[in-house]
Structure formats: C-alpha cells, structure tokens
C-alpha cells in the first residue's frame, strides 16, 4: 500500500512522524512548512490545496491530521467513485480519534482505520452500516481477496439485503483460476461457498455473490472479478524466451495469478526488439507496449519510484519494470520490482 500522511500543526506533525514509523507500507509524509521540525524527512507545503491534486491521484490511502471539515473541502473536487477513490482517514491533532471518511470497503479505509487506532492507542470511528452491525460486507471481502466488483450498484443491493436479515449465498465459477484456493479463503471468513457452472445461476436464489473471471449481467448478481493484470518487465539483452516466461510465471504465482491472466506486457522502448519479451507475449497472445523514457520518467516522478543509478546510466531512466507497469492508466502496484536471474518483473492491477 502506498500512503500519504498530511499534517498541518506541530503536534500533528509529531504524530505523523510516529505513525510513519509504525505503519507498514510505502509512506510519504507531507508537513505544513512552518509547523514541523526540519530535521524530519517530510515534504513541505504552504497550502494543502496546492498538493491535493497530485496526492489524491498518487496514493492508495491518504491520512490527514487535522479537522474533518478541512479534509472534506480539500478532497471534494477530486472524488470520482468508490472503486477508484483512495482511502481517506482523518485523525485529530491530539490523536484521540481515527475517522474512516471515504472508501471504507473497496478502498480499505475501515480496515486501515482500525489498524491506525491500534497503533496510536486511539478510538476508531467507523460509520458504515454493515460494520456497525457486525456484518461482513461483500465489497470488503472482495478487497481482501484481491477482486474488483461489478456492477457497482449491486453492492448496495447485497448490503441492503444483508442489513434486512436476508441470507446472501456465495458461488465460485468453476472456470475461475485458483477456484479451490478462493473456496478456502472464503471458508476462513466463515463463508461457505459452492463451486458451479455459471449456467446453473438461474436456479440460485438472488441476490448472490459470484466469483468469476468474466462479468455476468444478471439482476441480483454481484460479480467479484479478477483485476486486469499488467506486467512490467526488464531484462538483460539477449535473455531467452524460456527464462522470461519462467520468471513471469513465478512472479504471477506470488499473487495467485496465472501467466495467461496477464492482459498487457510492458517495458522500455529500448527493449522493443527484445526477442525474449516479444516471443513470450506472442506465445500467450498478450499485447505488448514499449514506453519511451519521457513516459517512464513521468511515472517515476508521479509514483516516487526508486531509481538505479546503473540502469539510468545505461538507458536514461533508472526504473523500468515498475514504471512500465504503472504507465498508461490508473494502476496500483501489487508486486514491487522482483529480481530474478537476468530478469526483473513488477505487476500492477488496473483500476
């Protein structure tokens, strides 16, 4: 998870620094220039409104140490919809309350709120109806398992049914890769699902949840869909197709994907004639996109990616696989740069 912490008061800055030390993930702290000790590794700002466009689009979660009203005014122009907006969390500058404000389920704000409250010894404030009733919402489960949901409006249908006391059954498409793995994951969450052919859905009581590889447009059916997977690849010149294929398969296995679920292979334009990449893409009928240095550098700056001085000297940019995976759309890095022999792979979900 890539997160930002924003503090506008002196005490808020101290708490922000403490939280940054305690919280897992790739975090960046922004501090109001006149309000924090300059020995702290913060990014300074004068007006929060000036950094908000970049921060809102760059991070998976944004944690504010300030008043809720300020946050509402700051983020309002940038809110799109619940399946793409970042998790927004607000903490008072004394660290008494941690408030889940936006994207509680799909963005993970509720879960992150509980984690932060535990780390700071604060009180979590969560107001979503399913959570306060102790009901596990399907969109929360989808996020935990690494799925998107479709159609989005059916989330409300399912949650309304659950809140009214109605049972909602879960089913898994037998053609979904790793179907038995997801059966086990649901069972760990005390959900007993059944594996079936999708042509059997007509006989199943609605509403229901279906884990599947392809969306099904049926009234009362909420689909959990695998995220579109983008692979960024870097390699030494002349690396064989077999080696690149083996490394990409291994990388996909780390996040319970198969290589044939990759929808796009990306790399630097320097590798546009790299036979190993081209042959791997051709074997699995995966489109390939090679990005020029300008596009890659924009992603390096936007996502604050680490650069290798050696790689930058060789090709002009210091990050290939992560930058390539993140370039060209709204994406979330799900597997950071992973080194294999002669090959590096990064994987991103398309939002």
TrEMBL record:
Gene Ontology molecular functions: lyase activity
Transmembrane segments: 61-80
Any single GO BP term: cobalamin biosynthetic process
Residues covered by the CobE/GbiG C-terminal domain: 229-348
Cobalamin synthesis G N-terminal domain: residues covered: 51-131
Keyword line: Lyase, Membrane, Transmembrane, Transmembrane helix
Record-annotated Cobalamin biosynthesis central region domain positions: 137-181
Matching InterPro entries: CbiG_hydrolase, CbiG_mid, CbiG_N, CobE/GbiG_C, CobE/GbiG_C_sf, GbiG_N_sf
PANTHER family according to UniProt: COBALT-PRECORRIN-5A HYDROLASE
Name the record gives this protein: Cobalt-precorrin 5A acetaldehyde-lyase
Higher taxonomy: Bacteria, Bacillati, Bacillota, Negativicutes, Selenomonadales
